[in-house]
Amino acid sequence: MPQTKRFFQEVKGELKKVSWPTRSELINSTIAVIVGTILLGIFIGIVDFFLSHILGVFIR
Fold it and tell me: What is the DSSP letter of 20?
């Protein structure tokens, strides 16, 4: 039990050293991830569409 208590005290101490992002940095990063994910999804969808049509031509 003392080891567990010590562990959590050390975790708490380490978390105080962390450089947490500001609210605006967090919002900007979240927007960048969402936009990047949407763009990547669109790109993969377009490539999939064309490859499936090209493959369909070869199969027929």
Answer: P
